[in-house]
Every structure is written in C-alpha cells, then in structure tokens.
Amino acid sequence: MLAVLHKSVAKTPEALIQSAQNDAVSVSALKDGFLAAHFSSSRPGSVVVNIPSSGFITYSSDAHNPLFPRLFGVFDNIFCVFEGHIENVAPLKQQYGLSKTANEVNIIIEAYRTLRDRGPYPAAQVVRDIEGKFAFILFDLTSKATFMASDADGNAPFFWGTDGEGNLVVSSEADVVKQCCAKSFAPFPKGCFFTSSGGLQSYEHPVNEMKAVPRVDSSGEVCGMNFKVDVDTRKGNVGMPRVGSDANWSGKF
User: Fold this and answer.
1) Cβ atoms within 10 Å, residue 101
2) Average pLDDT of 161-182?
3) DSSP label at residue 54
4) Which end of the chain, N or C, is surrounded by fewer C-beta atoms within 10 Å?
5) d(CA 78, CA 80)
6) Is the CB of residue 220 less than 8 Å from the CB of residue 214?
C-alpha cells in the first residue's frame, strides 16, 4: 500500500522535512504522477485512488504476504487501506455496533468516525484498543483529515518520508518510499499514530512527547531520522478538548 498526501493536508514532522531539504536526491512524488506510475508498473492489478488537491492512495492485492493481507474500503468519503490483521475483531465489532460481516477496514473507519464525531475516549485509547499486527492509512475527504497508525510492536512493515516538495509519503514497502524521499526515509514508529493536526503521537505513552533521533549508516553519515518516545518530556494537555455538544473533533485528535 502507498499514500502520498499533499503538505496542505498532512503536517509532516519538521525533522522529516529538514532531512528532505538537506538531500539533493529527493524528488516530487506527485509531479506527473511519478510515484503512482512507479508503484503500478511493477504491481499488477494496482488500484490508484486520486484525491483531488490532496494526493492519492494506491494498493495492490498481488503477491501480498499472507500474514499481512491488504484491505481497502470507502465509506462516507473516508478512504482506508489496511495491511495485517486485528486479533480482537469480535469485541471491536460489538463496541462500534458493526455487523458480523465487518472486516478490519470497517472497524478502522468506524473507530475514526467515533473520534471525529465526538467519541468518548482519547484517540490514543481508541488506537490502543486495537490488538494485532497491522498498519493503516485513512483519509477523510470531507474534513481533509489524515489518520494512520502502526501496531505496538511494529510487526507490520510501515515506512514514511517527505518528498522534495514537502509532501508526506507513506507505504508498507521501503523501496517505494526511498524512490522519492532518499534521506528523509524512516520506519514509521511502532506504537504510534499520526494525524493531520495532531502530528505524530505515541498511543503506548500518550503523556510523552516524541523526539527525532538521527539515524547513522555504516559509514557514520547521518542518513535520516527515527522517532522515539521522549521519556523526559511530558505533554501539558493530553486530553481531547470537549467544547460544545456538536463539535467536530476531526481537527483535534
């Protein structure tokens, strides 16, 4: 799976942007459909979903790892691509009032809708309740909101980076991200989620800030950034503000 999200809808971490700015090799992932064409050319049956003025999402069911099946779904202008599996599907279906035929994508979309439309729990708690080996990318076309996460142990392959124009590139395949991100390429932090407005957050340690740590190659040269929980820095306010009964929270988690 692959998503490229325009910098206007995904507030990329500053450390990733700086890595891209310092790298002459980084190129634009969106210009002339470069990365979508590269992905599709080597993956038969690829489906590309173009998101007007926001980027695209693409995936292929060809030659996927049976341990990490790929699913795609759309509901109420919310697009979601999921890779892996959820172990506690049954209780989550019950929690969100879903039918017995609902799959992982349905669960992720409904969890997001619960958060967007004033859910009872903080976003970190909602993601932490999902047990399994997974990674997902979700985009809400109506509110221009991005939501993505990786499992607590980082079992599902998931990578991200910034292209030469500051757009966010996220994929389950490292080589795809490296095509246009070069030194800004990095593994997506395990046990974390990312949103357009809230940025990168740990759902395992929601009261702590995240910090960028330089990644050094075998020759001792800085080749990018990894993100880790900063155990010495706590957030001032970790809860979601509850303001007004009709408030839309899509920009607050």
Assistant:
1) 7
2) 90
3) T
4) C
5) 7
6) no
First CA to last CA across the chain, in angstroms? Answer: 24
Evaluate whether 85 touches 132 at the Cβ level (below 8 Å): yes
Please state, in angstroms and rounded to a whole number, the distance separating the CA atoms of residues 98 and 107: 8
Could you tell me which residues are beta bridge partners of residue 92?
A: none
The answer for 176, left when phi > 0, alpha when psi is -120 to 50, beta otherwise, is: alpha
C-alpha closest to that of 53 among 5, 3, 17? 5
CA distances from 211 to 8, 179, 225 (A): 23, 25, 10
Within the chain, residue ranges assigned H as helices are: 14-21, 34-41, 89-96, 104-116, 123-128, 174-181
Q: Provide the 3-class DSSP secondary structure of residue 249.
A: helix
Q: At 241, is the pLDDT very low, low, confident or very high (cuts 50, 70, 90)?
A: very low
**Sole residue written with tokens 């800085």:** 222
Contacts of residue 122, defined as CB under 8 A and 6 or more positions apart, other chains included, come to 206, 238, 239, 240, 253
Query: Coil, helix or strand for 31?
Result: helix
